[in-house]
Design brief:
Shape: elongated
Number of strands: 4
Number of helices: 10
Helix content: 55-70%
CATH superfamily of the largest domain: Cation efflux protein transmembrane domain
Structural class: alpha+beta
CATH architecture of the largest domain: Up-down Bundle
Largest sheet: 4 strands, mixed
CATH class of the largest domain: Mainly Alpha
CATH topology of the largest domain: Alpha-lytic protease prodomain-like
Strand order of the largest sheet: 1-2-3-4
Length: 348
Amino acid sequence: MGVIFPILENPEEMRYLLSMDIFGRLKAGSGEAKSLVFAIALTAFILVVEAIGGFMTNSLALLTDAAHVLADLVSLALALLAIILASYPATDTRTYGWHRSEVFAALINGVTLIVISGVILYEAVNRLMAPEPVKSVGMLVVAAFGLVVNLIVVNRLHGHGGHDLNMRSAFLHVLGDVLLSVGVIIGGVIIYFTGWFMVDPILSVIFSFVILRGSVVVMYDAAHILLEGVPKGMDLQAVVDEIKKVDHVVDVHRMHVWSICSNITALSAHIMIAPDYHGERKRIINDINCRLVSCFHINHSTLQLEKGQCEFTSLVCDVTHCELPRRGGHGHAHDHDHEHEHEHAHTP
């Protein structure tokens, strides 16, 4: 149980989180948070209308679109949750705070989407073998209503999706809803003028594969982050080359780059500097961090400056398992004989 809900293992931490004024934080929050609240309210309204309309018109395509809206509603809620949880401070039991909860929730969301798409595919195959009549006029009215509301949501989120991956993901989800609404409208027009009811399950099959593809992407991205993978699209050698542009930097090795969540990237590395450099090391650290943030959006770094030979020479090295120290013992040992200095940097 604690693996799924780790907060239950620490009652004091639960009381601390519950004591935080979540609604107060939303009221005084950023423009992104307020836009997400607006988008969630309208998306929930669309979900109710399309679900009721789908049952009343017997349109599987409309119900499929409603299922996609449900998935997007969860995605919008996760985006808002990520903003709220990111405001909670780190503790001595969660040194990265609650940023990873966004990733864990996205993984659950991906599994749910696969189940939904499977149910839709099963029903669509049954209707392909035995087509059922669809009330095309009602289908058109509901789909058109969904399209208008989705366009309002897209317009509200559009200005926040340029610099934040979390908000960009939410924006793209709603944009997908717009495209699906257009597809349902086209299907309704075809049924109205031709009476070809097969269009409805065919559209459902297409939409279910769209949902399935999105769920696989979500699950892959979440698993990649949880497995401490290098952020997508990042070239380690390009990072090294940029670091080496800093004066007095000779080499980079033992480098790790990973994502804490979708919009926080961390890096740790050993930085070899020239043996004859005796200036202020803080200047080198600051220069490196400026380059990491501006070029690669790496906003949390731990850099170890070194002179002389290091026992680690490769850029990427294995992390080996070690025995846990006995109770009361000291489990941290250094066998370095070279001069080094640790520096940490964090850009909020």
